[in-house]
Amino acid sequence: MDDLTLHLDVRVQMSGRSTTWTTEPMTVPAYEWVGASLGDLDDAFIDEAQRDWLSDLSVQVVLVNRAGVEILRQAAPPLKLAWDDHGPLLLTIDQAADLSVGGAWSIAAEIEAGDPITTGDSEFVADYGEVNP
After folding, report:
1. Separation of CA 26 from chain center
2. Exposed end of the chain (fewer CB within 10 Å): N or C?
């Protein structure tokens, strides 16, 4: 299984918009662990709403043989992205749930997500992405 290459197919989604890219292929030595970079996540900033709300990040690891045939495609666990004054922050789903209310990242968005939502004669409260009566 020599002469394998690996690349990542990456997608960021936010507010109905998305951006995708593929990283440069890298050689993968047989029977060794390798690390791969997602590239410059600053380029994944596609909407001003990302300053207030979390973005979805999906990554697929693709392994290709010497003949250029894809022999493995494996999805990584889903991740979230948040942008602060220093740039993008990569969060696991658990971290995102701990740090945001209903996907809200900024204080203004947290207030909006935490406000009671009234529909008809029932009141609902959004809490960490769930709607509870």
Report:
1. 22
2. C
